[in-house]
Amino acid sequence: MEQKFYDAMTDCPVIAAVKDLKGIERCLKSEVKIVFVLFGNMCNIGSIVEQVKKADKIALVHIDLIEGLSGHEIAVDYIKKNTRADGIISTRLNMINRAKELSLYTVYRIFVLDSRAYRSIEKQKKQIKADFIEILPGVMPKIIKKISGLSFQAVIAGGLINDREDVIEALNAGAISVSTTNQEIWFM
């Protein structure tokens, strides 16, 4: 795990998860240090990331959501070669593993929708090489605590984080940080 990324999360535990250009403009005025870019296409992702980098923030691209990129490892190479992104977010382990090979920060996003999904994390924990695991939805303190206890990676809670109480509960349960599209939380 890269110390700069970890330090940025502990210094400001709210991550701006941004889904449009207006969100980029707004998050750049906030105190957040890390931006999850959840939109874009292969033609504009470089300029979106550049805006984040010019504001001296850490930029991670959710590679699964970038239009025009495939689910193949070459998409990670594209992000590395054509943007200044610090890392990627993905639900696919092959993408995470390739990003690690290219020395990018990595966040493995996991949707914990039922007990089967939770058991899958237990089985996969040795295969997960990501720097961090992001658990969605992030408003499940008991599950966050369990996964924090079994995971080798620090946990980010994301999804359905709507207010200060959700942030505090996730952090108290063991998450190192929360990611949210709720712009009011970016300015807490």
SSE arrangement:
Layout (H helix, E strand, L loop, with lengths): L2 H9 L2 E5 L2 H7 L6 E4 L7 H10 L3 E5 L11 H9 L4 E4 L2 H9 L3 E7 L3 H10 L7 E5 L4 H10 L3 E5 L5 H9 L4 E4 L2 H4 L2
Parallel strand pairs: 1-2, 1-8, 2-3, 3-4, 4-5, 5-6, 6-7, 7-8
Q: How would you describe what is shown here?
A:
With 188 residues, the chain is an alpha/beta fold. It has nine helices and eight strands. The chain has helices at 3-11, 21-27, 45-54, 74-82, 93-101, 115-124, 141-150, 164-172, 183-186, and strands at 14-18, 34-37, 58-62, 87-90, 105-111, 132-136, 154-158, 177-180. The chain has an eight-stranded parallel barrel, surrounded by seven helices. It is globular. The model has no long low-confidence stretch (mean pLDDT 94).
Quick rundown:
This protein is an alpha/beta fold. Helices cover 41% and strands 21% of the residues.
Q: Which tags fit this structure?
A:
188 residues, alpha/beta, 8-stranded parallel barrel
SSE pattern: HEHEHEHEHEHEHEHEH
DSSP strand (E) fraction? 15-25%
Secondary structure class reads: alpha/beta
Give the overall pLDDT as a whole number: 94
What is the topology, as strand order, of the major beta sheet?
A: 1-2-3-4-5-6-7-8
- Give unreliable regions as ranges: none
Major sheet attributes: 8 strands, parallel, barrel
Q: Say how many strands there are.
A: 8
- The 3D shape can be described as globular
Our Rg estimate from Cα atoms comes to 15 Å
Residues in helix, %: 40-55%
Count of discrete alpha- or pi-helical segments spanning 4 or more residues:
9
Q: CA-to-CA gap between the ends?
A: 27 Å
